[in-house]
Amino acid sequence: MLKGFLRLQSPLRSTLSLRKVSPRNQHLGIALRYSTATAERKRFYQDVSISQGEGGVFEINLDRRKLKTPGGKLFTAPNEALAIAVATEWDAQRDTLKFYTMHLTTLCNTALDNPTERNKDQMINASLKFLETDTVCYRVEEPPALVELQKNEWDPVLHWIENRYNVNIGSSSSILGPDIPEATKDTFRQHLNSYNFWSLTGLEYVITQLKSVVLTMGIIDRHLSVEQAVLLSRLEEEYQIRRWGNVEWAHDYDMYELRARTAAGALFVHLTSESSTVKRKLLQD
């Protein structure tokens, strides 16, 4: 899959930045603060460590200070593996803290503070909306070369997920996308409901990055690698780059950023899953 695209590069995306918002746009401001904030700060600590707190959760210590969330809560991770991963992000920072590179920390903050005050059902509904406009379901009608490319690269993944979950999804060239059967939505709703709140936070994050439920489940189920899923999500852009060229230096940056965010989200899902089988599988891999 994607043999002709593994070496392709992509243009730079615009970077979200923090800004003041009116009460009407408060939720947008919160989302920006917990996602791709560009703020930097001078490193104020020497050592990073973890310790186990009450209830079996794990805390992150910067020197002798306990890490807090943006909402002022004590920063805790549900298990040691995730705590170590977060501590590694903080330890990897140099003279300047680049918060926009600390994706696992951001996801933990989001799960702990729940800034948009949503429950599991609301998160699941938000994720399922991407089915109606899923990246691999919307097809162009021209040019013929791109039509063929989408068919060759996206159809196998679409067939896989339909067989894997015994659902019908389909594809469409209509701007409205395919008509997703209610039975399909119910199947995915039940499946997503099997994840805990933390894992759903990671799932929704990956779905949003790729704009695709199909590609996200492909990663989580280990049918696709992160690299494959990212390239599939950018298939049309890669086609245009291959045909018309790209901006020197910019394409790699965008690709690596999307890979980093997607990989962090997928790792977050696995590390926060309640399934001990998944955890053992990760350790074996």
UniProtKB/TrEMBL annotation:
<comment type="function">
    <text>Plays a role in the assembly of the F1 component of the mitochondrial ATP synthase (ATPase).</text>
</comment>
<keyword id="KW-0809">Transit peptide</keyword>
<keyword id="KW-0496">Mitochondrion</keyword>
<keyword id="KW-0143">Chaperone</keyword>
<dbReference type="GO" id="GO:0033615">
    <property type="term" value="P:mitochondrial proton-transporting ATP synthase complex assembly"/>
</dbReference>
<keyword id="KW-0472">Membrane</keyword>
<dbReference type="InterPro" id="IPR011419">
    <property type="entry name" value="ATP12_ATP_synth-F1-assembly"/>
</dbReference>
<dbReference type="InterPro" id="IPR042272">
    <property type="entry name" value="ATP12_ATP_synth-F1-assembly_N"/>
</dbReference>
<dbReference type="Pfam" id="PF07542">
    <property type="entry name" value="ATP12"/>
</dbReference>
<keyword id="KW-0999">Mitochondrion inner membrane</keyword>
<dbReference type="GO" id="GO:0005743">
    <property type="term" value="C:mitochondrial inner membrane"/>
</dbReference>
<comment type="subunit">
    <text>Interacts with ATP5F1B; involved in the assembly of the F1 component of the mitochondrial ATP synthase (ATPase). Interacts with FMC1.</text>
</comment>
<dbReference type="InterPro" id="IPR023335">
    <property type="entry name" value="ATP12_ortho_dom_sf"/>
</dbReference>
<comment type="similarity">
    <text>Belongs to the ATP12 family.</text>
</comment>
<protein>
    <recommendedName>
        <fullName>ATP synthase mitochondrial F1 complex assembly factor 2</fullName>
    </recommendedName>
</protein>
